[in-house]
Amino acid sequence: MTDILMPALSPTMEEGTLSKWLVKVGDTVAAGDVIAEIETDKATMEVEAVDEGKIEALLIEAGTEGVKVNSVIARLEGGTSSAAPAPAAAPAEAKAEAPAAAPVAAKPQNDPEIPEGTPTVRITVRDALRDAMAEEMRRDDKVFLMGEEVAQYQGAYKVSRGLLEEFGERRVIDTPITEMGFAGIGAGAAMTGLKPIIEFMTFNFAMQAIDHILNSSAKTLYMSGGQIKSSIVYRGPNGAAARVGAQHSQDYSAWYAQIPGLKVIAPYDAADAKGLLKAAIRDPNPVVFLEHEMMYGLEFDIPDVEDFVLPIGKAKIQRTGADVTIVAHSRMVGFALKAAEQLAAEGIDAEVVNLRTLRPLDTDTVIASVKKTNRLVTVEEGWGPMGVGAEIAARVTAEAFDDLDAPPARVHQEDVPMPYAANLEALTVPSVEKIIAAVKQVTYK
Amino acid sequence: MARAAQKDSKTDSGKKLSNVSRDDLLKYYRQMVLIRRFEERAGQLYGMGLIGGFCHLYIGQEAVAVGMEAASKDGDQVITGYRDHGHMLAAGMDPNAVMAELTGRSGGSSKGKGGSMHMFDIETGFFGGHGIVGAQVSLGTGLAFADFYKQNGNVSFTYFGDGAANQGQVYESFNMAQLWKLPVVYVIENNEYAMGTALARASATVNLSQRGSSFGIPGETVDGMDVFAVKEAAERAAEHARSGKGPYILEMKTYRYRGHSMSDPAKYRSKEEVDEVKTTRDPIDHVKTMLQQAGVSEDDIKTIDNEIKAIVLEAVEFAQTSPEPDPSELYTDVYLEA
After folding, report:
1. Residue A179 bears catalytic tag
2. Interface with chain A: mutation pick from B44, B122, B136, highest number of A CBs within 10 Å
3. At the N or C end, where does chain B have fewer CB atoms within 10 A?
4. Is the CB of A225 less than 8 angstroms away from the CB of B313?
5. A69-91: per-residue pLDDT in tens?
6. ipTM, 2 decimals?
């Protein structure tokens, strides 16, 4: 004997009207036969038999309203083992409390020890990025570079200069102008264990591909119960360029840094660029690597060592100071350092924290600095609302409230799309002057 | 540039019979019945509140996944959208793990963290299970890119529906697949309705096999209710892709018997239309008739039916007794240790 139960026909249905029986006692039914019609608040639906057998009894009269989901509406005689499992088997309400949030990754390692006296080389950020890719491509055949103008043209910003020559067109691949398509191809290739580097000419164009970055890369490990790994780097220039207007000047730091499953890196100088891009390519997780067009041509010293790799998730104290903590990432670290220099002349000793990684965020380094200086200024190129500075201010006020001698201050782009006119553009973006003003605000100078 | 071929493959059951072994017939029948009985039970469990959210059943379309699978080789990949249970079972995934994923239990193929639309199985080459309409087309082209990069001789079978066929990234993918001659077979499962919108109401051209013609991708329309027609076309398409000639499009004319999802009453089509397909084009009845013609007895068919029923009931049992995921699983599988 098999019970036939009142089915739920939508995720929210609790009861319905059994409007019509299409079978009668004594009828023989097979799996798939329509046996009744049920009316919900939205629609009339057909109910099919799942078992075969003879209808022994119809327990609810046609036309009955308010029939509860999972109540027995009919009985079949015969049939093999009971098809209808006990309704009590419905999953229990969440009984256990959610466990405390685990750290997104193991504690970050420290930077590699660079012995005193190690020689340095002077190199542009552009070449540091190129060298990082070349070294990792030499090391691992699974790594390839794909994007618009990356091969024959040598990169729209010349970041991939020389790579086609060394690695050939199998591994350095020019794509059509089709961000969503090639991001998806990269994400799919990564599912098989390859390690794509997907270059966006700028992150503004990655908006066309953001579905694959989030839905096809960031969430796949979780949705597959740990089976499908996505070791892929999405990289390119991010943030405000110069005089290119609203659609080509936007900082996406906060957008990507909100997504669990992604790692998000925003390097400042050549050492960050090289050490972190190598780490990003090796990382088994999807990484969004936010470069900055205005930094590509700048030169910095980096240690002249074999295989220079920096830890993901570790901020760097770029300048030591005692009076105020300025937290910045990407190009804004340079602005913060300039502001600190000028402030030093006025007797204010600023510490500059270069975040380097936005997800996972190195809160410990920021908190330790604030505990020392008791004052916080955040700087970012993006808009303020829901931004990186907002997140840091929230974490600092939650974890070091008693150490603060002033409310944190945030420096960020004005809350408008990027204007084209030179004077308006200058008014919109963060500046050394704005950082100095914010520092004076929190130091009450 | 390859000339886009258009061909209608229709199978005459009687004629084809001589080319099909009795074992193959039995295998296809078994796989198709497994999918149908599995889906019916999934519908039942949904009705009991044991499966949540969205649940899109494959009933009516069984011949497509089974026929395509018959032409695939070890190492080939399969990727599809959200109506994915049939492809998983055809690929050889464990019915217990699939059903337990539907009920959100720890024994599910994604440990209960994926659900109906998000299941994967590296072992059988099943790469999902994707909930964003059309995303699997770029991803499947990426699987083919990986095959091409590794020169491993494998083919990516990338399934999508008549609805997804209007997404922009489909054409971005077609372009790159043909430009680079990637080994991908695009299988368009044309079940006539994208949710509630009939093909002709959403598509300026309705011959989906020709959607690759501006890229020079050959395509053909196939009777997707005939597992042998599907298999034959699949073999042609796979051979084309495997031999380095690039992508191939198969438009499968098929039909879903149930609504778009469990909560869809399917009022956009008539009962007569559905009944007509069920009685005249049912893919399982078709194979059953051929089995009978091949001299397989009613009893032997009944034995298979009972075996399948037992497999599905075991899956139902497993899907209810497998415990819910431990709360500690909440924070696992977000990142891999570097």
Report:
1. yes
2. B44
3. N
4. no
5. 889 999 988 655 444 444 444 44
6. 0.92
